Amino acid sequence: SSGINAEWPLRPGSFTISLIMTDLRVIGAGLGRTGTTSLKTALELLDLGPCHHMSVAMKQPRGVVRLWERVAAGEEDALKIIFRGYRSTLDYPGCTHFATLLDWNDTAKVILTVRDSPGEWARSARSTIFSTSPLRKVLLKLLFCLPLTKLYYLQFIQQTSFSAHNTNPLDPDCDLETLYTNWNAHVKDTVPEDKLLVYNVKEGWEPLCRFLEVPVPGVEFPRLNDRREYKK
User: Fold this and answer.
1) What's the pTM value of the predicted model, to 2 decimals?
2) Which pLDDT score, from 0 to 100, does residue 55 have?
3) What is the full DSSP assignment across 175-211?
């Protein structure tokens, strides 16, 4: 089966959960809006799925939200349940825990997805995941009390991810270019060079497959989730 049973009666810190190890082969450290949806499909075509991703997280049941709440409270062992059954992870919220996941999966490789420039990423993020439009704020306030809605989960995941950046990306005054630059530098400083691929999805299959030591498939590299598609 894909992913986890979110209703497992396991508790972080217990002897039982300490024995559960994740089986991740690829850990994505790149932020959202760096081609992660295209890369998710690519990894699954390379038999490195199922792949955890923001789009997956927002469709999971309330039990998974409870697990992320535990992670946010400092109980990182809950990640072992969340990622059980996944062979790869990309995007928020998993990217903010790349170092811990690598510690638990010492044979895994890390991919830092990037855009052409910090400014390009900042413009994309500001118009999508970190939008500050008044309409978005009103909708989130109206729907925040409905814990099973997609927007509630998006809001929750954003809030739990902000601590990794030591700032609030939803603040209009937040310098997203600096946030992006600092995050990428942090990843490069943390991950051993032989385990890290800095990757732009525009590069296609060749550098990805060479890094993962797998054959290049006979299909075109997927191109998904541009800005217009995100807003639908």
Assistant:
1) 0.85
2) 87
3) -HHHHHHHHHHHHHHHS-GGGEEEE-GGG-HHHHHHH
